[in-house]
Write a structure and sequence with these properties.
The protein is an alpha/beta fold. Helices cover 40% and strands 24% of the residues. The strands form two sheets. It has a five-stranded parallel sheet, with helices on both faces. Strand 1, helix 1 and strand 2 form a beta-alpha-beta unit. The protein is globular and about 30 Å long. Keywords: Phosphoprotein. InterPro entries: Bact_response_regulator, CheY-like_superfamily, Sig_transdc_resp-reg_receiver. It holds the Pfam family Response_reg. This is Response regulator.
């Protein structure tokens, strides 16, 4: 699992996340800053796993998560809210609490690959 799709509406956080993933040996193959582009990318792009921000400019990323579930793609939430949004499935997904350190991202990615 090397190719990661990032869904994040804050450009600085997306860039930081991309750098951190590169340090861990992953490659960001796609990113989306809003729900519309995230849905299109999740549907039409090949990747191994995704990292989703819970809120995209006030819109929930839950529709993206549902699409990833349908495609059998693993994902985790990176959020300042502390939990995955209501309706998320499965409930045991890794949730990465913002702000996070490289070691926390590494642990979350390991949990994701073991799921």
């Amino acid at each position: 699992m090397k190719d990661i799709f990032i869904v994040e509406d804050d450009a600085l956080i997306a860039m930081l996340l991309e750098d951190m993933l590169a340090d861990l040996g992953y490659r960001v193959c796609a990113s989306a800053p809003d729900l519309e582009r995230a849905l299109a990318t999740a549907r039409d792009t090949e990747f191994d796993a995704a990292i989703l921000d819970v809120s995209l400019a006030g819109q929930s990323s839950l529709p993206v998560a549902k699409l990833l579930d349908e495609r059998g793609k693993p994902y985790l939430y990176a959020t300042g809210y502390g939990t995955a949004p209501d309706g998320s499935s499965p409930s045991t997904l890794p949730v990465l609490q913002k702000p996070f350190q490289l070691s926390q991202l590494e642990q979350a990615m390991k949990r994701l690959t073991e799921a």
